[in-house]
Design goal:
The complex is a heterodimer of chains A (about 190) and B (about 180). Chain A contains eight helices and no strands. Chain A is an all-alpha fold and about 190 residues long. In chain A, helix 2 runs antiparallel to helix 3. Chain A is elongated, with a radius of gyration of 26 Å. By secondary structure, chain B is mainly alpha-helical. Helix content of chain B is about 70%, strand content about 0%. Chain B is globular. Classes of the chains: A mainly alpha (about 190), B mainly alpha (about 180).
Chain lengths: ~190, ~180
């Protein structure tokens, strides 16, 4: 057996894995591409073990270890992906740009655009597990808070008229809203 | 260095390995280019199966069966569960590729060209005569439990840590400290 043949197969598999990691958007597809790269390494290890006739069988034993580590990696990776999906409702790598928790008053450069606001409120509303009604309401609150800004203290009687709106809007940590919910109860 | 047989008269083993390699590379290409998420996982099964066949041809029997058991049996099933639990679109999805696809094609082609060139240049004269039995369960088992005991045990601790980590990550009622 010429060593070149399996080595070339493994090089091609590795390149395909590189392409998959770079070009795919779905996180699970990226994990599959990582598996392809690990398999390319495994094929190389087995090939060179057979070629060098290692007395300790280093290549094949290391292949077994790599397989086990790949299993652990896939398990953990899928757990992370599921946690990600629970929090953000997407596994799309192009849309997972924020490293921080999605807060309402983050200093995003695209602050006022509709898509950013919709995405943020969407992820927040998803935490409650409710549907479009909650999302629309919190989007309302988001818009209102963006408009009123620091007038929010002076206008709290406006908010207190609609008690259902206040808890939905109060989940943002930046505005002094949690305390305001209590005060809103005192006013009447 | 022993005499290297000619490339023009391939043995049967080489032909089988090249066919299996072609299947593996083709299936891998389909994994990274298909438009359907579930089909990608199923092509991954084909790719891993062909690789297991390659291990068999290379006389690494035990590794081949472990590959079938763990990769085809466990990892692909795990990936399929992940696809289902993230409510991925069943059927054709148009947006599985990101915008930097041309750059990815460029990088992957460059990687392939460099690797294949270096491998052909470096291992053109390498020849490994195949002798059956070198990768049997007996040989590998005695090697693992004589020379590789410590890494083996460390690996079991790693697996335990990964197991606990996966449980902690996927439970929703465990919160971090405030």
């Amino acid at each position: 057996m010429h060593v070149v043949y399996p080595a070339i197969v493994s090089a091609l598999l590795f390149s395909i894995g590189v392409y998959g990691v770079l070009a795919r958007r779905n996180t699970i597809l990226v994990l599959m591409s990582v598996e392809l790269m690990l398999n390319a390494v495994n094929l190389n290890l087995v090939t060179f073990d057979v070629w060098l006739r290692d007395r300790l069988h280093s290549g094949q034993v290391l292949t077994l270890f790599v397989i086990v580590i790949a299993a652990a990696e896939v398990g953990l990776g899928l757990a992370i992906i599921l946690a990600l999906y629970r929090n953000r409702q997407t596994v799309d790598l192009d849309r997972l740009r924020a490293l921080a928790e999605p807060v309402d008053t983050e200093a995003a450069p695209t602050g006022g655009t509709d898509t950013a606001a919709g995405r943020r409120t969407g992820t927040r509303a998803a935490g409650d597990g409710n549907g479009d009604e909650e999302r629309a309401r919190s989007e309302d609150g988001d818009e209102e808070r963006a408009r009123s800004g620091d007038r929010i203290r002076s206008e709290r009687h406006v908010r207190s008229r609609d008690p259902a709106r206040s808890p939905g809007a109060a989940s943002g940590p930046a505005a002094p809203l949690p305390g305001q919910a209590d005060r809103a109860g005192e006013i009447p | 260095m022993t005499e290297v047989p000619s490339y023009l008269s391939p043995t049967g083993q080489e032909i089988v390995l090249l066919l299996l390699g072609a299947v593996a590379v083709g299936a891998a290409l389909l994994v990274v280019t298909t438009r359907q998420l579930v089909h990608a996982a199923l092509w991954l099964v084909v790719c891993f199966g062909a690789l297991a066949g390659s291990y068999l041809v290379l006389t690494a029997e035990f590794v081949a069966w472990v590959q079938v058991l763990i990769y085809v049996g466990a990892i692909v099933v795990l990936l399929l569960f992940g696809i289902m639990l993230t409510r991925a679109p069943i059927g054709r999805a148009a947006d599985l590729d990101s915008r930097n696809r041309p750059a990815a094609v460029l990088v992957a082609t460059a990687t392939a060209v460099v690797l294949v060139t270096v491998i052909v240049d470096g291992f053109r004269t390498a020849y490994a005569p195949l002798e059956p039995g070198a990768g049997s369960a007996k040989e590998i088992g005695s090697s693992v439990f004589r020379n590789w005991v410590l890494p083996f045990e460390v690996l079991s601790v790693l697996l335990l840590a990964a197991l606990i980590g996966a449980i902690v990550l996927s439970r929703t009622d465990i919160r971090g400290r405030e």
